[in-house]
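Task 17 of the worksheet. Students: predict the tertiary structure of the chain below and write it out as structure tokens. Keep your answer in the requested format; marks are given for formatting as well as content.
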Amino acid sequence: MWEYAFLDGTKYEPSKHDELIKKPLWAFSSEEMEEMGLPLIRDTAITQKYFDVILAADKSKPTPDQSGFYVHTGGMTEKGNIVYGGNHEKGRGKQDTITHGEESVLARALDDYGIEDQISIIGFLREKGFAPAPRHCGPCRDGILKYDTSRLKVFGASKDGGHVVVLPFSKYLKEDFEETDEFLDFPGEQIETAVHGLKIASYRGLSGTPELEKKMEDGLYGAVIVAKNGKMWKGSFRGDTAYHSSYTISAAIDTFRNSGLLRGRDIDIEKLILVSQNSAPQIPYKDRQYFLDFAESVQLFNNRGDEPLPVYMLQADEKGDIVKGWKTDSYEWLPLPFSGKLFGLGPSYVKNIEALLI
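Model answer:
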């Protein structure tokens, strides 16, 4: 029921390779097959694809000059073309990246084979140790969504070998949210503040046609972070000519951090409200990632580290009146999260919040 291979791609055969058993080898399984009670993947044609992606990832040359975290990444297109890349971080700046591993693979696939040859597999290769299911950050999810991801599979592997579970990329997406009318009980100033964040949103970018300009403007939304004591911090989108924009939720978090005079009770956050006009807010996964970091920080500070923060997404009409609402939270809308708490950053999160107190 298992399919094995060595790092050089040689298939494991007990009669021939018993003396090599200490070398890295992998066993692949599909989550869907396990859920259905079917055997682990053993079709050579299927598993060969994953072996090829691992071997490609091993060729990558990441340059993580800031983080020291090497992300060896491989990929395969629908037509069987192999690509690889790694994470590369900037020579100047703090916690700033040129490209993540996934983005590097996507760029190479697009350059070499075009958007028509869809990406079908993305795999990661760790230097050593156990390789859990990949934890795509928010921006990388947005990048991958340039493609049709309905058939995309992702996995993580280790140079040490081991069991690899292949996941459909759909596991990392969340777009169907519960409708709610709870916003009817929100104080009017909370809604008005979020609507104002939408009104002052500034899209400044190079768009080749009026149609592209309108497409960019149509996706804007306003935000307000609300504390249980009623304090509010507004956020709005700020575009950038070079396409390095300040996202809406990130801007609200910056308002919170830079407002000054914060006391402990101000950090007891109640909810996030988002408002878009004439449609449900379409929130990029990058902005969801910003809010997850913030939510984990304040909840750990308040000794509620396992509790997500509520998120309300509201649709306003031309007059700014709310006509429909949806509810989610800081974990639900970012499945299999790229979580600082999961990576052991909780103590530093709390320390950063404590530094804001007067």
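Marker's comment: The domain at 14-172 is CATH 3.40.140.10 (Cytidine Deaminase; domain 2). The chain is about 30% helix and 20% strand.
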